[in-house]
Amino acid sequence: DNYVTVEPEEIERIEIESSRTIEIDEFVDRADIDQRYVIRPYYLVPDGKMGHDAYAVIRETIRSMNKVAIGRLVLTSREHMIALESLKKGLMGLLLRYSYEVRDEDDYFAGIKDAKVTKEMVDLA
Fold it and tell me: Are strands 78-87 and 23-28 parallel, antiparallel or unpaired?
């Protein structure tokens, strides 16, 4: 057999450690982020004096470009995508799903029949 047994402690040794940093990959328009990809929002705050300076630069860059920064961070030993947007004096991070985690709506909606809906029905609803 060509099977290899991996022990749980071996898996633990290769887990990614959280670095408490976000690597920014690109800037996009907020409207380009489909809401189906958003998992949950987070308020992000700086850590220490150096953190405050870098935080302010990132926040002001995002604000001046009128864009959202797309980046990566490690949470719970797994890399995630995150969108950063300026919010008042701070930054809000939107944890995002990867494209393979979002199913195609046609898989669900294909069987829905077209129904004739009258104005009266809409008004009643």
Answer: unpaired
